[in-house]
Amino acid sequence: MAKDREYRGSLVWKRPGALGEAEVERGLGGVVSPVLAGFSLAAIATVVTADRVPPLADWAVAALAVTAACLVFGMQYAFLSLRHSTPPADRLGWNPEATVDESELNRERRRQATDRDLALRYSGRTRGFYNTALISFALGLALLVVPREWSVASVVAVAAAALAGLIEITWIAGQWAARSREMTRLHPFVRWLLARLRSGTGPLLQRLVFSPDDVEVRLSTLDSVSLESVGILPRSDGDLHAAIAELTQAARDIQAELAAIARERVGVDPDVSPPIQAPTAPTPPAGTT
C-alpha cells in the first residue's frame, strides 16, 4: 500500500532519503571493509603457504582475491562519499555569513546540492563494490570448506556457506529492484520476481529487512495527543495568542510575589523596578499664563 513520503523532502537543503546514510558509509569504509579485507588476505596467505590444501583451494583464493580488491575500492569510494556529506549545520558553522545573508545562503545551498549529488554517486559505487565483495566472499568461503572426504560436519559447513551466499544474493537483488524504475523489457517471470523483491513481500525478505511501513508512526495522533496536551503545540492562532497572554500574566504574578517577599524581609524592593508612573505636564513659572 502506498504511503506518504513527504517527510523525506526539504525546502532548503537537498537531503538524503535516510538521515543515517553517512553513518552507513562510515561503518562500511572504516570498520566492516577493513575487517573483511584483512580476513581475506590472511586466508589467502594461509592457503598458498600450506602444505595440504582443500581440493578447490585455487578457486577459493581467486574468490577471496576478488573480495579483497573490491573491499579496497569500496573503502576509497566510501571516504570520497563522506568527504561530500557535510551536514548543513557544519556548513553554516564554517560559513556564518549564510545565516544573515540570503545570497550567501543560496550559494551555500548550491554547494550542498552539488556535494549531495557527488556523495550519492560515490555511495552507489561503494555499494556496488561492497555487494560484489560479499558475494565473492561467500563463494570463497564455500569453496574453501569443500573437503577431500565428505562428512556430516563438512556437509553442514558447505551448506551454511552456500545458504549465506544465497541469502546475500537475494538481499542485494531486493535492494537493486527497489531502486530500479524500468522493468518492462524483462521477462514476465523476472518482472514478477523483482516486483516481489521490490515490495519486500517475499517470505525471505520479510524476515531479513523491516519496511518503514511496518513501523509507521502516526504523526497526526502524536501531534494531537502529546504536543497539544502539554501545551507545546497550539491548535490555532487564537490559542497561540492566549498562551502568550497567559505566560505574560504568569510572569507579572511572579514579579509581584518577589517584590512582596523583598519588602517583607528588607523593607525595600532591590530586585524589582518600581512601577513606571505616567509623565505629568511641567508646572509653568509664576506670573505666566
Structure description:
The structure is a single chain. The chain has 289 residues and is mainly alpha-helical. The protein folds into two domains: 9-214, no CATH class; 223-266. The chain has nine helices and no strands. It has helices spanning 21-49, 57-83, 88-94, 102-144, 152-179, 188-199, 203-208, 219-229, 237-266. The chain is elongated, with a radius of gyration of 33 Å.
Give a brief outline of the structure.
By secondary structure, this protein is mainly alpha-helical. Helix content is 67%, strand content 0%.
Structural features:
single chain; 289 residues; mainly alpha; 2 domains; 0% strand; disordered N terminus
Secondary-structure blueprint of this entry?
Layout (H helix, E strand, L loop, with lengths): L20 H29 L7 H27 L4 H7 L7 H43 L7 H28 L8 H12 L3 H6 L10 H11 L7 H30 L23
Helix pairs in contact: 1-2, 1-4, 2-4, 4-5, 5-6
Distance linking N and C termini: 88 Å
Domain module count:
2
Coarse shape: elongated
Class per helix and strand makeup: mainly alpha
Helix and strand string, N-terminal first? HHHHHHHHH
* Total DSSP helices: 9
Indicate the mean pLDDT: 76
Low-confidence stretches: 1-8, 215-234, 275-279
Quote the beta fraction: under 5%
Roughly how many Å is the radius of gyration?
33 Å
Kindly state the number of beta strands: 0
Largest sheet: none
**Relative helix content:** 55-70%
